[in-house]
Amino acid sequence: MDVSTKYPRLPPIICDRDKIALKEVRTYIKSELEKARCSTDDVDVKKFSIYSTAFSMLISKVTVYRDILSDIKREYEDCINALKNGEREAKFLKVKVKTMTSIPTTVHGYMKREKELRERLSILYAENERLEGILKKIIDEHENLNHDHHDEVESDQEEESETDIIELKPIPGMPVSEWIDEDALKYALEKLTNTLEDLKSQKQSSYVTIEEMRAAQQEFDGKYAEKEKLEEECQTLKGRQKILKMAADTAREYRELKHDIVDEKLSSYISKKVTAYSIKRETTNLVESLYSVFDDDDPSKEKEAEMILDYIEKFNELFYDEEYVDAATHAAISPKGVLRDMETFLRFKEVSENFEGSPSPLLVFAEAFMYSSSAQNHYADEKISFECVNCALREKRPDLVLHWMSNGYIKSCKSVADRLVEFASSASKRKTACLAVAQKMYAELEGSKVISAALLYKLKQPTRMLEFAISEKFTRDTYLTLIKECTDVDLVWLLCNTKGDEILEDETRRNYTGYEGSLPLPLSQALASLLSEGEEAKEMVLNLLDDIFYGQKSEQDDNGSEPESAFLASDLSKIIYEDGQDPYDTDDLVTQRWEALAGACEESGRTEVLMEILAALTVRATMKKALDLIAEDEKEQFDYYT
Fold this sequence. Notes:
This protein is mainly α. It has 29 helices and no strands. The chain has 4 domains: 12-100; 210-297, no CATH class; 305-538, Serine Threonine Protein Phosphatase 5, Tetratricopeptide repeat; 539-642, no CATH class. The protein has helices at 3-6, 16-36, 45-61, 66-101, 103-148, 150-158, 162-167, 182-206, 210-256, 266-296, 299-320, 324-332, 342-352, 361-371, 373-376, 382-394, 398-406, 414-426, 431-444, 449-458, 462-471, 476-486, 489-496, 506-512, 523-530, 535-549, 570-578, 587-604, 607-641. The chain is flat. The protein starts with a helix and ends with a helix. Mean pLDDT is 76; it is low at 161-167, 289-298, 506-517 and 553-570.
């Protein structure tokens, strides 16, 4: 008798790993089908993708028949891809056939349209011939009238006034072709009107009457004479002060050396020193006066002033003629930087407000200003740096800002860094580069270290952020400000589970150890500080407590991977027991923080977490009391035996 017929066939023995794998695959298929809302009867691409992924998961996790299953999956996928390609090609051919069938109808329509246009063209030709005949008849009649009145017209032309002759003169600055163009004449008239108004306003604001100028000159001469008189008095008083100081120093020196100076009195000793100083000072004043006379008679200074005035006048001409590129270059390379100031920036900014096109005159001047900074040895201050950066970012040119920053043309200031952060929040390109430049600026500024550390964390550089914070000796309050700035649960967990001396070199660790605010932060203090930062931060704190309580939050090991065991519910109690064990916290402060967190849990309806916190606080208080009693007993015994 066959054994296989005598005894029923046993099911295959599946190991625990395969069971878990099959369960995960089934769970994945069920959840993904529910998310994609795929029906069980229709053919759906999403459904095929879900089962293909599940098949790959199964192949990667089972221990037997892996090669055969891979071959089967590959054949199925090739077959399905072939069906897809066939369906796609069929749709394409269907559209192509439909297009080909409509070609004769289109050709017939074009031929009919051609016939209609030819008929209209013949009608237009006939109408043109008729109008030409009428026009020729009118011209002949007009020539006859001109011949009859020729003498009368000549006499009228001779009697025209001088003003009429002036009006017939050529218009300066306009070509002959625009003399009869109404739009061009209106534009020229408007431009001349604006120029006339500008000259009138300049006459009122930039010029004064000769009487006012003379009065101002007299007032200036009086003030200047008064200034010279005060300077002479000041120099006299300074000389007296120096002489008195020298006399006092000489008296002090005489008192120290009176044993060596026996034959000389104090008055003669002081007189000798003061006389020597006076002779030296008169010699120095004489040399300085000679140099000042030579400087006053130097003709090159007057010539230099005339050249600067001519240069400014040339810039104004280019600017009023709307030649902004040449004007920007002219101003950027001005001698002694007379045009490299905020006033010139404001002039370019004013004309850029209604300017159409890119780049704007302001951006052109900003580029010329920056690129000529090293040659002129004149770099932008904070206001000009902000104007240049703001203009470049407004016209979507962050590459210019990064180039200027890399060459040191921009002065680091908070306004520029804030503008870069604002641009990065809405930009899609060069976002990381803008944030990196802003972080570097914040790091160089006092009072912006927390923002610099926050940007390092947003740039996904937590190690550099910790090194920067420790090198700047962040206190505990500074770390709490950093947490409020970022409002990120991973940052809270990082600062509460990182020891500062673990990421420092030996030499740096010696400088770091002992200052207040060293890591790690107490978890209760970090979470309690976020409760008052709005509903979003409060919800993040409560979710973190839920994760710890239900075992969903776990620390990472040294390799950066998750450990085998996650947190259990008892780990929240463990955290409460060990919280605040440093010299900067007291037991009452820790209890107050956890009570505040418990109150937030009670308000949000998290009863289980609330009970766990209260129970842990009770146990903590009991243990504290017991330890205090034990310590007191040991102290009494020690006092007894001693």
